Amino acid sequence: MKIMGISLLMLGCLMAFSLSLDILQGFDVSQAWQNAVSPFRVMEVVELFVLYFLLFLFFVESAYCFIKGRKENK
After folding, report:
1. Which of 2, 13, 18, 22 is within CB 3.0–4.6 Å of 27 for a Cys-Cys bond?
2. Would you tell me how many other CB atoms lie within 10 Å of the CB of residue 58?
3. Residue 7 belongs to domain spanning
4. Whole-number Å distance between alpha carbons of 59 and 50
5. Higher local confidence (pLDDT), 50 or 73
6. Which 8-state DSSP code applies to residue 63?
């Protein structure tokens, strides 16, 4: 759970940093948001499949470690 929390925290901080830099450069919020998520729009189907598969593996491993830890504590 710590790894997942740290990963999400890093994602949020980096997205906020990217958005703030775009806003400081003079873009409005919607354009800054589009710039932040545009790399995901141009991905092909195979690239999206690999991304979702890796995210799925990450969440499954986190859930497995969490459940295993709870069973060992009982």
Report:
1. 22
2. 13
3. 1-42
4. 14
5. 50
6. H
> Locate tokens 């009982």: which residue?
74
DSSP state of 8: H
The distance from CA 30 to its chain's CA centroid, rounded to whole angstroms, is: 19
DSSP 16-52: HHHHHHHHHTT--HHHHHHHHHHHHHT--HHHHHHHH
Predicted TM-score (pTM) of the model is 0.59
Each residue's pLDDT tens digit, 10-41: 989 999 999 999 999 999 999 998 888 888 77
Residues 9 and 20 in one domain: yes
21 and 33 together in one domain: yes
With beta carbons less than 8 A apart as the criterion, state whether 36 and 15 touch.
Answer: yes
Which two structure tokens, joined as six digits, stand for 70? 């709870």
